Amino acid sequence: MSFIDDDGPPKKTAHEIGADLSILSVDELKARVDLLKAEIARLEAEATRKATGRQAAESFFRS
């Protein structure tokens, strides 16, 4: 009897900053680049959303 769940969903690709990249294949490296690009886009969108909200609040309170 094994306590390891082999039937579970595969883990998502994750990236740890500073991790050893020499053990990864070219396909794995490309997947991580795509993952990080998507995360950068998500972060930039959130920063833009927050900046817009802040500008609206500042405009409201200046009036």
What descriptive keywords fit this protein?
63 residues, single chain, mainly alpha
**What percentage of the residues does DSSP assign to strands (E)?**
under 5%
Helix/strand/pairing category:
mainly alpha
Shape: elongated
H/E series: H
Rg over CA atoms: 20 Å
- How many helical stretches? 1
Bin the helical content.
55-70%
Distance between the termini: 70 Å
The low-pLDDT segments are none
Question: How many strands?
Answer: 0
Note the main sheet. Answer: none
Mean pLDDT: 86
What report would you give on this structure?
The model has no long low-confidence stretch (mean pLDDT 86). The protein is 59% helix and 0% strand. It has one helix spanning 26-62. It is mainly α and 63 residues long.
Brief overview:
With 63 residues, the protein is mainly alpha-helical. The protein has one helix at residues 26-62.
Layout: helices, strands, pairs:
Blueprint: H1 26-62
